[in-house]
Amino acid sequence: MPTRNWGLLRGRPKTTSIFRSEVMSLIQLYIPSDVARFTVSQLGEMGLVQFRDLNGDVSAFQRSFVNDVRRFDEIERKLRYLHKQIELNDVDVYEFMDEEFVGSSRGPRDIDDMEERINAHESRVLKLTAAYKNLQLNQLELIENKYVLEEVSSLFTEISGRQGGVGGQSGRGHASGSGRGQDAAPLLTRADTSSRRSIGSLDAARVGDLEADIGVGGMGRDINVGFIAGVISRDRIATLERVLWRSLRGNMFLNYVDIEDPINDPNMEEPVYKSAFIVFAHGASLRDRATKIAESLGATLYQVDNSAERRQEDLIDTMSRLDDMQHILENNSVARINELTSVSEQINTWYTVVRKEKAIYHTLNLFNYDANRNCLIAEGWSATNDIPAIQSALHLATEDAGSNVPTVLQELRTTKEPPTFIRTNKFTDGFQNIVDAYGVPKAGEVNPGLFTCITFPFLFALMFGDLGHGFLMTLCAALLCIYEKKLAWLAKDESMRMFYTGRYIVLLMGIFSMFTGLLYNDIFSRALGIFASGWAWPTDKGGEGITVEATKLSHVYPIGIDPAWHHASNSLLFTNSYKMK
Question: pLDDT tens-digit profile of 391-419?
């Protein structure tokens, strides 16, 4: 198979044209180490060189600037964390971009200062976020403890009332013996209240003792009844009932009430509905078993005092602490939002600079390091016309670095196939992207993008042809082209980016659609009778289902399809054939 001599392409004219790709040159750079970063930064801003990887046999972890790449990876991770916190706290991100800092050659001190500021912001946000989460956990405990205290106090109040009623019926203040007569009564049944539900029952044994002990919140010293109280997720309360009933063999009494308002749990993404419960059981062993079962199901248990007075004091203290906690949370939230607001003003600039710096060191990893000359050797392709601009950029990079040793550029002779570089502008860029989506022409071949500028919108217009709709398309695209600088923000919106970048394509599609719509005599899917028709329909239309024929007149319609065809029964067949031809 014959091989192409790519060196012959160098005899072509070096003029810039979209008809063919640019004449490319393989250049070699000898860059002093202290100028390397500034050099790559300048060349990267211009985008005129495609560097070759001279370290293809070296893994990514063994290259010279891998530590610098990791450094900026870490900075980018911190910026992602700060950006996530900004979104979680609904802080508006400023579209501000410090063009002077982003576009200029940044020195190592500028990068160090930026990194220090990012680290300081991240450290403060981490501390505030951790403190806010701990405060939320403390608030959660106080809220749950409040509901438990209210539930236990309410239940004991009902039990006290019922025991008082039992004592009044028996006519005695103290019951003797252990029989199960009138002195025995369940503490609470299922039909007591609509908001509170229970399972199991405990006999009062000796009503006199219970009355004496309930006054201080006890459950009868002689029968050794105790309780545990806590909060559990509402969807697990039924499981807790069944497991306790079977494990304790019915020697228990469980009462619970659903908490109406959802509780914000910091460990959960959404608010959780919970229930406050209390379990009475005989003996310490049964209570320990009930405690283990409740904790295994995710319940949070709280210590509740037996004394009604102490419970009331604890409830008042809990409410007071909740108010204080709410004020602390609000202050923390304000401080965190203020910190994130200051970050949001610079985060776009920092993101851009970090990504540029990381790209610089990725590019430096493509170069060979010459230890004897203390320089980096780079090779890359560039358009022959751009070599003077590249030399100017190398001179600026040397000045920015404050070095007296310039970068040496030399053009290499090679038979390697050069890459394809087709210079485009804002008009031809969209059409060239359409061509590149199907295939990129080789160096020296004719570029189909030039013909696509006409054929693509024209073929679209053949299908879409409508004078009215084409005018609307042209109007919208023309506004985008005229005010393209003011509307540049549309390129950042994902849904509008394609329409904005392809505004010149849409403009031509609209213009061609108006032209073909005029030929089709079609405006908003209606016939446009500008001139007199060349056909005449009979005045007698006949009845329904009767076919009538138009009479050919002596003149023809001056331009486009005669509007009479829009009323013909074979209109679709005729217009489709017309469009295909």
Answer: 999 999 999 888 888 999 999 998 889 99
